[in-house]
Amino acid sequence: MKTIELQINGSTHEVSIEADETLLQVLRNRLDLTGTKKGCDSGGCGCCSVQVDGKVVYSCMMYAAGAAGKAITTIEGLGGGGTALDPLQQAFIDAGAVQCGYCTCGMIMNASELLATTKNPGEDQIRHAIAGNLCRCTGYTKIVDAIKLAAARTGG
Ligand code: FES
Ligand code: FES
């Protein structure tokens, strides 16, 4: 075991980990940040997406130790980290883009990265941004609609 410091959603967490623990394992199992989902656990589904220094990573594919000293944002950190919803979260609800919800965290974390740099994304840009995220339920159309809605509401 070794102890590292992780900066998550603006707070510092000192956590003891095994050297081979992934960021996903630490988030869910040691810090109870279960909004980030475990799907394939092998880099193929995108539902474990978080942002590290503003860029999306698959947390199942990153050692937790490698994230030390970097700014980690999870779905719990959007919307200011309190109970208020981020515009993307609200838009997913309003557009009916959530069914089982398992993919939703990853979709939103990728969409959040897109909207941070692209204020008025076209449909191709939106679909490209979520291309690594699998959804078994929605057929994707309402997810794309939700991201368009969030972009419009945030000044796109
Ligand atoms: S759980 Fe990480 S990509 Fe599927
Ligand atoms: S809403 Fe079920 S996997 Fe996307």
Describe the structure in your own words.
The protein is α+β, with helices and mostly antiparallel strands and 156 residues long. The protein folds into two domains: 2-78, Ubiquitin-like (UB roll) (Roll), CATH 3.10.20; 85-153, [2Fe-2S]-binding domain (DNA polymerase, domain 1), CATH 1.10.150.120. The chain has five helices and five strands; from the N terminus they run ββαβββαααα. The protein has helices spanning 23-30, 87-94, 104-117, 123-129, 141-153, and strands spanning 2-8, 11-17, 49-52, 55-58, 71-73. Helix 2 crosses helix 5. The longest helix is centred in the C-terminal third of the chain and has 14 residues, at 104-117. The mean pLDDT is 96. One FE2/S2 (inorganic) cluster is lined by residues 98-103, 135-138.
